[in-house]
Amino acid sequence: MVKQIQYKTSGTCSAYILGEVEDGIIRKIQFVGGCSGNTQGIARLVEGMRVEDAIAKLRGIDCAGRGTSCPDQLAKALEKECR
Question: Please, are residues 67 and 9 in contact by the beta-carbon 8 Å criterion?
Fold first, then answer.
């Protein structure tokens, strides 16, 4: 079963995270807004990864003292939508 993700980010340049998770595996991630090269890189790195592994690697990453980052927001989105 494919789960659709649509998550409104907070504290980052990106506005939303969209994606698909199937049987605990990240199939597609897209950031709306933010630093295009960085968010594309994050998305490609996590595609094919288990949700739990992505959360463990990305949770708590900080960007410029904001207390969060695009990777951290992705971890939060996965926690909210897939746990």
Answer: no
